[in-house]
Design brief:
This protein is an alpha+beta fold. The chain has 14 helices and seven strands.
């Protein structure tokens, strides 16, 4: 069975099941599908099918079905817009007697970033803040010699940071097949090198790949710090300081520490400290910081200075006023949303072919 026949069969079944509109998305809609590309069929209707895979006629078929308002919310949700907007712009309408899908296509084609600038900036700031926890987990895993956990946390940072920076740099990518390359092109050579190492594409050792993921986080912080509010600044500053500390040798020190513990004896703690230094206490303290490192700050960041960059903070007129444009940060007046921006829809993203 060829692709048109498979698509027609799936569309007919969805219509019989109550769908008011059916569209084809992704690579088969664009005309650049490869032999392993799935056929993305999306239905607008009363039934909800978040994501379902089938094999038909030798093809992998993905089916998604949601109510109309769920798709409209994705066009205003920073977590979905980078894929949803180009996805609907490229959609091929298969069944649409009431013009429902055509209206969504036109809405996507008329879509702009302008009404959502503040919302996108706030989303980016909170995502960067939340990823601080992954930095903590990665350092803790390295320190504890938990290689599997460290590998997972390294990958979490390398994978998720690209999506966050795509929103920050206002990149519509449609298919995730291009996301990481598009972001590295926008961010520059430093990001490209760190991302490549964090994803294990070079000949770096394991600890070096983990260090590359930490560098990626640092680069993201450097780029987005004007968007952070004071709570986020404090969280991110500590994670950034952790990411800047030496990471090499943490696994070796953890192994040595375990060897000391296995020896037993009354002087266990003395020998443990000799083997692993200050790792038992969770890192260097204020009085024994290595040369070139900053001690953990006491109290809140100095008023008027950004805690990470040490530069003057912009006027405190809200985190939604900072915007990156043409390589420069600038402050702009708040814009009135031209759409009824609704509460973020927590569900599956608009599926794009891989």
């Amino acid at each position: 069975m060829d692709q048109p026949s498979v698509v027609g069969e799936v569309a007919d079944e969805l219509v019989e099941d109550g769908a008011e509109a059916v569209v084809l998305l992704g690579s088969h809609a664009r005309g650049d599908a490869g032999p392993e590309s799935d056929v993305d069929v999306l239905a607008v209707g009363p039934r909800t099918v978040s994501f379902r895979l089938e094999r038909r006629g030798g093809l992998l078929v993905s089916v998604t079905s949601r109510p109309l308002e769920a798709y409209r919310r994705e066009l205003t949700d920073p977590g979905f817009i980078c894929a949803a907007v180009p996805g609907w712009r490229e959609a091929v309408v298969l069944h649409d007697p009431h013009g429902t899908a055509a209206a969504l296509v036109e809405e996507a084609r008329a879509w702009t970033w302008a009404p959502l600038e503040g919302r996108c900036d706030r989303w980016v700031a909170e995502e960067i803040c939340s990823l601080a926890e992954e930095v903590h987990k990665l350092i803790a895993a390295l320190r504890g010699g938990r290689l599997t956990t460290a590998a997972v946390q390294r990958s979490v940072l390398a994978v998720r940071l690209a999506g966050v920076m795509a929103v920050h740099r206002r990149i519509l990518y449609g298919s995730e097949n291009h996301l990481w390359e598009l972001v590295s092109d926008a961010m520059g050579e430093g990001w490209r090198v760190a991302q490549s190492a964090a994803l294990g594409l070079g000949d770096e050792g394991f600890e070096e790949t983990c260090g590359a993921a930490l560098r990626l986080y640092g680069l993201a912080v450097d780029e987005t710090h004007p968007l952070l509010d004071k709570r986020q600044q404090w969280v991110v500053r500590h994670a950034r300081d952790l990411a800047k500390r030496p990471y090499r040798g943490l696994i070796r020190e953890s192994v040595d520490r375990q060897a000391c513990q296995d020896e037993g004896g009354d002087d266990l703690h003395d020998r443990e400290a000799e083997c692993s230094g200050d790792l038992r206490r969770g890192g260097a303290g204020k009085d024994d910081v290595e040369e070139g490192q900053e001690a953990e700050p006491d109290g809140e960041p100095e008023e008027g200075l950004h805690p990470v960059a040490g530069v003057p903070l912009p006027p405190d007129d809200g985190p939604d006023q900072g915007r990156y444009k043409e390589g420069q940060y600038h402050r702009h007046q708040p814009q009135q949303d031209h759409h009824d921006v609704q509460k973020a829809f927590h569900g599956e993203s608009l599926h794009q072919s891989r």
